[in-house]
Amino acid sequence: MTPLRHCLAAACVLAPLSAHAHISYTGRNFGAFSGGEAPVTIENQNASSFGWADATDADFGDSHRVRAYRFTLNTALTFSISIEGMAYSTTAGTPPVTTTHIAGLLPGFSVYSGLAHISPDKADHDGAQISLDYLATLPGPAKEGAFRSLNDWTIGNDGPEFNLTYPAASLSNFTYVGHAADGTAANFGSESGILGDGLADGKVTGTFSLPAGDYSFFVGGVDYASGVGAVAPYQTHGIKATFAPVPEPATAALGLLGASAILFRRRRA
Ligand SMILES: [Ca+2]
Ligand SMILES: [Ca+2]
Asked: From ligand 2's centre to the CA of 204, what distance in Å?
C-alpha cells in the first residue's frame, strides 16, 4: 500500500540513526531469563503508527517502521510481553522521551526465533543488495520491504558492493512464533490470521511458552490505514515495552505440594 521506500544506502548513512536506523537491538535487549526474575521495562523507544500492520499483507513491510527488541531464554519459559503506546517527543539536542499515555500508538508485535546481525557485523536492512536479491525471488507483488508480521522472514546486511572494506553480506532468518495486536479489524485491517485483543486502547499483551534460545520481537503500529500514502517522519509514536517471566502453574503447584509434604512429615514426626 505505501510506496516502495527502500532505504537507499547513501540516505541511510546520512539520516539520523534514531529516525532511520537499520535493525539494531541497542538499548532494546531485555537480557537472559531463567524464570523467577522481576519484569523488565524498556521505555523511550518509538515506531510508526502502521509498521506492524503494513507487514501483514502480500507486499510485506519496511523493517525501519518497527522497532526490534531481543531476549534470551536460558531454559524453556512462559513469559508475557506487554506493549503500551505512549506520546513521543523529540527535542533537538536532547534524548527523545516518551511521556504520558495517550493511546497515540495502537501497538502490535511479533515474536521470532533468531536474531539479526549484531555488531561487529553490519546491520541488516531492507535495502541491502542481498535483501533485494532475496525478495526478488519471492512470488507475488513487488515488496515494500522484508519485514513480515505473521510469517517467517529473511533480511540481510551490506557487503563489499556497498563498501569494499565490508565482509561478504549474509542473510538473517527469523522464524515466526506468534503475535499480539491491539484492537480489531477496524484498525488493523482485513488480512487473515490477525488476532486482535478486541479493545483499541493503546495497550496489548501476549503470553508465550518457548524453549531455550535467542529471540527477537518487533513492535509497531497496527493502524493499517494510516500507512496509505504516509510520508516521513514516520517514527512519531512512543513505545513502552515490558518483558515478564510468568510463574509456571505446574511449578507453583509442585512448590505447594512440597510444602504440604514437609508439613505432613513434621506432624507425623
Ligand atoms: Ca505492506
Ligand atoms: Ca488493547
From this structure: 5
